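Worked problem 6 (solution included).
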Amino acid sequence: MIPHTLTAENYFSPENEMKYMGSSQFKSFQRCESSAYAELHGEYKREVTDALLIGSYIDAHFEGTLDIFKAQHPEIFMKNGDLKAQYHHADYMIQRAERDEFFKTYMSGEKQKIMVGEISGVPFKIKIDSYLENMCIVDLKCVKDFNLIWNDEKGGKQHFINYWGYDIQGAIYREIVRQNTGKQLPFYIAAITKEKPEPKLKVYWIPDEDLDAALNEVVSLAPRFNQIKEGKLQPQRCGDCPYCRFTEVLTEPVNYHEELEVYDVECE
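Solution. The predicted structure is:
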């Protein structure tokens, strides 16, 4: 096992976010380099949405820290002390998952297992939701539903695993586990939907060839993203994310016909 000083308490500290790259950070750079850089350097903070909090709420249950999570997030409660309705449903999602023995088996491994390693010379850190030693790597996800999601950039629908970059996450996790154990383990997503009245459950296996392709992407891009982190390269703006909209500076009028031409090309 590669030695490190990371703990649950300091895993997301500013110092360790700068020292290591993780799957979430890598995907943030993929979405918008400028936004990711600004967030890392304390110049921008993403909005904490109910969707993110519900996912963290369910994560906390499975890692056995739900009471701590509730104490740290008073915003999930109403003024009278009761949980808000969406978190009552999160409790029901948890109950649904706990009733399924197959799902529980995949979530029965060591919780929040931390490992470190390097990809393309860049230090990476991972924290595994359920690590079944010598068997598999499992990450827990809470999603809206299992329907395909439209991706404007790709011009088509994608599975949520590809849309949210969970294949990228799986590739990073599998590689760092391999570096620490010498074993290339399969990667699974244990997924719960937020659908009402009844959530759905699935355990997804991401094939090795998909993880191989995703790892090639990480190998290719990680050095650039790390140089941006260190201030050695200028980050590029995506032009469409909340950070880019917030910091946009107008310099000249726009001929609206140009936007119509772009729309016509996208529709072809």
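Discussion: Residues 14-238 form a domain with the Lambda Exonuclease; Chain A fold (CATH 3.90.320.10).
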